[in-house]
Amino acid sequence: MKARVKWVEGAAMIGEAGSGHALVMDGPPDGGGRNLGLRPMELLLIGMGGCTEFDVLLILRKARQDVTDCVVELTAERSASDPKVFTSIHAHFTVTGRGLSEARVARAIELSATKYCSASIMLGATATITHDYRLREVDE
Q: Which PANTHER family does the record match to this protein (predicted)?
């Protein structure tokens, strides 16, 4: 895997992944930025959310669960002093579908957290990571 980050001006940077996709990163005005894009630490948190949600959906599909929507909301705390690493992260999943098995959803989240989600496992070296979930039944 490769990536490239190019400084534009102030605190603005363009990050490009090996897949060819790019995004803008920037800092707040009081840090030399113009607030034009995501902060790098926000990207880490979003990356963890995408990684764990991808795993959960894949596991639930393999378990033949009829998932129609899935949202993971992340809340994180960072250390007050440098390096300002994440110290706690909470992931709240809202899984929507038809006839979902609560046991299978709980197991999918557990497997992602403990075995499959590389981002969660790496961030877990400095942060306490917790999860919970809510199931929503779709009306037919």
A: PROTEIN YHFA
